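Technical note accompanying the year-one report. For the benefit of new consortium partners, we illustrate the data format agreed upon in the data management plan: each record pairs a sequence with a structure-token string. No post-processing was applied to the example shown here.
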Amino acid sequence: MKTIWEKEKIEYFGVIPFSACLCRRPDIIERRGVPAERIRSAVLFLVPYFVNDGAGNVSYYARSCDYHLYCEGLFARVIPALEERYGERFLGFADKSPIQENTAASMAGLGVVGDNFMLINEKYGSFVFVAELLSTAPPEALGFSGGTPEPSFCSHCGACRRACPMTRDGMECLSAVTQKKGALTAQETEYLKKYGYAWGCDICQLACPMTRKAVESGVQTPIAFFHEERIPVLTAARLSQMEEEEFRRRAFSWRGREPLLRNLKILGESFPYNFILCDSN
């Protein structure tokens, strides 16, 4: 298994029994044609995505194309090889997962769970996506060394909470605000103007000492996918020029164009003539 991950430049992976995972949605497994009770192991792995291309109005995770597309390609490459090698079923998940991924990744020894609920890795900080393969193979066959997996947690220094302007004022996460449909409140609008995000937010991550140390070390993802087609600064003009197929390849596309156009207007962007901001949902 190690050889397969090395070929994909996946440095951090680990195996735990599926029974150790918090499985919230067994139905997601069963939609893949495998009864949830047949799953015996979970292979957790990290996909680092950080590329230091400077300040921007888009969160680092969304500057490249959508990581779900990367994971789809990855699963298409590695799952057939694993199933042939072990003679068992392997199911790949990323984000839309039946298990609580951050805790499971910590149990697999890939990092600690932060107060902002993100998985924080020793090398890449919290600038990692967590994904997993669930398998009918016994965990020992995949490399599980035994014992009772337990999650690890950060030092609770409080830096992330102190840095978050929304937490201080008892409001929703700024990233969530950028993704809201419809009109924003006056207070939400002021926060958007102040912190300058058209999509997402990295404030709590960049305040974390572990993640800051990773960034200051100069580490960047070795995976080519995340170095390509990057958009650190989104403008209304850039957005208007995107064909629908290109737009749908971006992580910020899932809410449609209207929230982005609203945010860009708040940040001082003018609208292209062929876009009208309207959202009745």
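Partners are asked to follow this layout when depositing records. Residues 93 and 128 are 15 Å apart (CA to CA).
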